[in-house]
């Protein structure tokens, strides 16, 4: 029988104040007449989880520092947002003059430390959950008790892939299953040994979930993923299970220490000017 994967999005009440996330999720499952079974994965919007935990701030309450004003001037951004990025990001790489700073936080490279101003009242900003892996683990334990089945949980967000238009999904945190499938040492179709491939199961599932959860006014902050090929685990997971060390990241290392000097070639010059590359 062919392998199949199903993803069912769940509606939930619109929220802008702290609330009981797990109780709301269980109620959404009940309303959808869905009972979780062994191996199911629950995708939870990281923004919805952040709102539940009260991770919402009012821009008018933010007092920008001198550094924030300098970043705001240089990158044409709101000074209050620049201040929040300074406070939330673990590292700021740089930025673009469209109001965005490229940052690292919790093992994720993203614009503005994951701050979000959509689907929240005007003037407010949603921050990422403070301890996302602990949130995912709490949800997992509660659902396993309720449904008597071993399941997985993903806190999902959207992100921009380097060099591509449009957002896709990414796993901010995971609980209950190994987020990577290690193919190193195995053989491909022609018997060649795999040397570096590790499949990002959690990120792939997050992308599938985002496709049905939506990002605008759908009010579907949860999804049930069924049929995924998983290695379930009760081990406590962390960002180190997902995030590659910077020295091994082709994007970070290549654009910092490993940048090609001076003679970058015609295509590189055209790309730097934002011009389309020639077809080959």
Structure explained in plain terms:
The protein is globular. The protein has a domain of 166 residues: CofE-like (60s Ribosomal Protein L30, Chain: A). It has a five-stranded mixed beta sheet. α3 crosses α4. The relative contact order is 0.17. By secondary structure, the chain is an alpha+beta fold. The model has no long low-confidence stretch (mean pLDDT 89).
Key phrases:
60s Ribosomal Protein L30, Chain: A; three-stranded antiparallel beta sheet; 280 residues; alpha+beta
Strand order of the largest sheet: 1-12-2-8-9
The name of the CATH architecture of the domain at 6-55 and 128-243 is 2-Layer Sandwich
Percent strand: 15-25%
Largest sheet: 5 strands, mixed
Task: Give the SSE layout.
Blueprint: E1 6-10, H1 21-31, E2 41-45, H2 46-52, E3 56-58, H3 66-75, H4 79-88, E4 91-96, E5 100-105, E6 108-111, E7 124-126, H5 132-147, E8 152-160, E9 167-175, E10 180-182, E11 198-200, H6 201-213, E12 222-226, H7 250-255, H8 266-272
Parallel strand pairs: 2-8
Antiparallel strand pairs: 1-12, 2-12, 3-7, 4-5, 5-6, 8-9, 10-11
Helix pairs in contact: 3-4
């Amino acid at each position: 029988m062919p392998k199949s994967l199903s993803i069912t999005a769940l509606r939930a009440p619109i929220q802008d104040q702290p609330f009981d996330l797990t109780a709301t999720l269980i109620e959404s499952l009940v309303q959808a007449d869905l009972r979780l079974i062994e191996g199911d994965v629950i995708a939870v919007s990281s923004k919805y989880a952040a709102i539940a935990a009260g991770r919402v701030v009012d821009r008018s309450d933010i007092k920008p520092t001198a550094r924030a004003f300098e970043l705001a001037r240089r990158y044409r951004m709101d000074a209050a947002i620049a201040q929040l990025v300074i406070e939330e990001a673990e590292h700021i790489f740089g930025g673009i003059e469209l109001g965005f700073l490229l940052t690292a936080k919790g093992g994720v490279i993203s614009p503005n430390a994951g701050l979000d101003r959509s689907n929240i009242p005007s003037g407010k900003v949603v921050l990422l959950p403070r301890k996302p892996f602990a949130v995912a683990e709490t949800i997992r334990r509660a659902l396993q008790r309720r449904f008597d089945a071993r399941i997985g949980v993903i806190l999902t967000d959207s992100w921009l892939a380097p060099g591509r238009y449009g957002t896709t999904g990414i796993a901010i945190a995971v609980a209950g299953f190994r987020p990577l499938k290690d193919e190193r040492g195995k053989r491909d179709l022609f018997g060649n040994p795999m040397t570096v491939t590790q499949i990002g199961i959690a990120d792939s599932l997050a992308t599938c979930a985002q496709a049905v959860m939506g990002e605008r006014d759908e009010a579907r902050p949860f999804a049930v993923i069924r049929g995924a090929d998983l290695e379930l685990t009760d081990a406590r997971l962390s960002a180190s299970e997902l995030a590659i060390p910077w020295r091994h990241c082709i994007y970070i290392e290549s654009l910092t220490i490993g940048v090609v000097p001076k003679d970058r070639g015609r295509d590189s010059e055209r790309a730097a000017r934002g011009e389309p590359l020639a077809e080959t």
